[in-house]
């Protein structure tokens, strides 16, 4: 699969296809995943994102724009994902992680999220899905690991689904 809007200048190589994924070598490459939520990606080194104070999940914190591509960490890590501010509810829910919602064809594999720091002390009432990799998943998370901390110290009148890998797995 090649994204219809393939943009070769925004990555360190590749075409976004299964056989020639976009190469992620820099923070900028990583942030550009949001441009093609249906493409294939492969890390070729560890990527530090600890300078981003409040990570915004790919696709947003809702199901409206799920990630349906493939991210292959190739044994590398994304270091320093963090969030400490509250979320906005969309349709009564919030999906938070590296990716907001992983679609039914979406795959994350061979990736480590290290030194994550998600600390939520305020949240609107509603269903909250929080984790390192994705808040909500219809897809596959394979051979992935996480280190760091997720603190959720909020009284919530909705439902809170907090986990290291996936807030809610539906598939």
Helical run tally:
1
* Structural class by SSE content: mainly beta
Helix content: under 10%
Helix/strand order: EHEEEEEEEEEEEEEEE
Q: What share of residues are in beta strands? A: 35-45%
> Which whole number gives the mean pLDDT?
84
Using only C-alpha atoms, the radius of gyration works out to 15 Å
Specify the biggest β-sheet.
Answer: 5 strands, parallel
Shape: globular
- End-to-end distance: 22 Å
Protein topology:
Elements: E1 22-24, H1 27-31, E2 40-43, E3 47-48, E4 70-72, E5 77-79, E6 82-83, E7 93-96, E8 99-102, E9 107-109, E10 112-120, E11 127-130, E12 134-137, E13 140-142, E14 145-152, E15 159-162, E16 166-169
Parallel strand pairs: 1-2, 2-4, 3-5, 4-9, 5-10, 6-10, 7-11, 8-12, 9-13, 10-14, 11-15, 12-16
Salient structural properties:
171 residues; mainly beta; five-stranded parallel β-sheet; 1 helix; globular; 16 strands; single chain
Report on this model:
The protein has one helix and 16 strands. It is mainly β. α1 links the parallel β1 and β2. The N terminus is likely disordered.
TL;DR of this structure?
With 171 residues, the chain is an all-beta fold. The protein is 3% helix and 37% strand. The protein starts with 21 loop residues before the first strand and ends with a strand.
């Amino acid at each position: 699969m090649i994204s219809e809007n393939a943009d070769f200048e925004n990555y360190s190589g590749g075409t976004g296809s299964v056989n020639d994924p976009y190469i992620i070598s820099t923070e900028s490459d990583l942030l550009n995943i949001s441009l093609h939520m249906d493409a294939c990606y492969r890390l070729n080194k560890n990527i530090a994102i600890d300078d981003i104070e409040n990570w915004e999940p790919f696709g947003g914190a809702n199901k409206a724009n799920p990630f349906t591509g493939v991210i292959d960490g190739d044994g590398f890590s994304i270091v320093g994902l963090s969030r400490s501010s509250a979320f906005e509810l969309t349709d009564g829910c919030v999906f938070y992680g590296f990716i907001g919602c992983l679609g039914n064809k979406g795959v994350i594999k061979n990736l480590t999220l290290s030194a994550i720091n998600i600390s939520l002390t305020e949240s609107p009432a509603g269903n909250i899905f929080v984790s390192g990799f994705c808040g909500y998943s219809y897809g596959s998370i394979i051979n992935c690991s996480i280190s760091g901390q997720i603190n959720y110290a909020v009284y919530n009148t909705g439902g809170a689904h907090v986990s290291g890998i996936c807030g809610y797995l539906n598939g």
